[in-house]
Amino acid sequence: MLQVTRPTFRGMRPAGDWNDLEQVFDAGLHYLRVCYQKQQQRAPDDPLVVFAYYNAGGKWSPPVAKKKAKRHVSRVEAVFRRMERLEVGV
Fold first, then answer.
1. Residue 1's pLDDT is what?
2. Tens digit of pLDDT for each residue in 17-38?
3. CA 30 to chain centre
4. Contact 24/4 with Cβ under 8 angstroms?
5. 28 CB-near residues (< 8 Å, 6+ apart)
6. Is 2:29 a contact under the CB 8 Å cutoff?
7. pTM of the entire structure?
8. Is 90 helix (H, G, I), strand (E, B) or coil?
């Protein structure tokens, strides 16, 4: 449900335990809230920016974050298509 990189985890939980699933989940929720707050400041009329920031990072402008997130989603979809062609269960 939530995935954070180690640097993002460290930013949200500096003294946290990266191997503790509950702490990682909590850091992911915290980061999602940070992304929401940035979206409210920069692009309040575009809720998809929250997820773009979560995926691409909040340092980007809303259009750049959305472009980066779309590129990532396209790559993931391509992997799923290849897996389906190879008849690999997902």
1. 61
2. 999 999 999 999 999 999 999 9
3. 12
4. yes
5. 1, 2, 3, 4, 12
6. yes
7. 0.78
8. coil
